[in-house]
Amino acid sequence: MHQESLSMKMSKQFPLNALRVFEAAARLGSFTRAGEELGMTQTAVSYQIKLIEESVGEPLFLRRPRQVTLTEVGQRLAPKVTEAFELLLEAVTSARTDADTALFIHSTPTFASQWLARNIGTFQIAHPHISVRLATADKVIDFGKEAADIAIRYGDGNWPGLTCHPLMRVEFTPMLSPALAETIGGVHEPRDLLKLRIIDPNDPWWEQWFRAAGVENPELAGRPASRLGAQAFEARAAVAGQGVAILTPDFYSDDVALGRLYQPFDLRCNDSHDYWLVYPHARRNAPKIRAFRDWILGELNPSLSQF
């Protein structure tokens, strides 16, 4: 309440529009030229000057035929008003520049760690004037409440009010370390996986994959739960030999190449949920959003990069 009353009091004491007119008239030495600069009639300019003089309690101009000159009070006030408007302009320009050059991306943790963090450098090289800020969480953010320009979501692409571009098809399959597989003499058929610790047996991907592999009743419900919060963490646990994780193999080609993980079966599944790039439809033409959209679609989905 105090802040609101102070703001209202300042608004009454300092009529900003009248100050703007005073600054122009003092700088140009003419009510007529001030009106031309501000798109106002000379009568309107005179009215605003009268308002500021009433607020100050002293005349600010000496009116003469075809000429106005500042009074002593006006001469003291004019440079301070000019400086104040320059500070306001600088603040607004700075805020606009920050809005244009800072790109706030919200992403799922796994996509951020396994793809975006490894590739974002090429975007920044191509667009050095855009600074990228990244936040990660599994929750679906509300663009009206969160400070985010774009988001990378996992889902079915049905988000009203948002422009949505498919980025990556999400397929999943069991993966484990070769050393762990050797502890049971190798993994030869899908049911062999049940001889090992299953990392997060409550993950619905497991039921779907075992069903597709022809394994009925894998009895996952009775196993110790191990919810690690993100696929990337489950992958690290699998690399460490802590169990079998069900992962998106496209994210772990480096681990496969280095012999830290392997995919024992060719079977991959998809639950109709994929990765999508999304942003508010109303902001689709913002330069920084267009730049990131064209870059990431060119990297992951070239057929969509020009749309």
Automatic annotation (TrEMBL):
Alphabetical keyword list: DNA-binding, Transcription, Transcription regulation
Residue intervals of the HTH lysR-type domain: 14-71
GO molecular function, one term: sequence-specific DNA binding
Keyword Transcription regulation part of the UniProt annotation: yes
Pfam families: HTH_1, LysR_substrate
GO terms, biological process: DNA-templated transcription
Origin: domain of life: Bacteria
Keyword Transmembrane set for record: no
Family according to the record: Belongs to the LysR transcriptional regulatory family.
Name of the protein: Transcriptional regulator, LysR family
Naturally occurring in which organism (per UniProt): Sinorhizobium fredii (strain NBRC 101917 / NGR234)
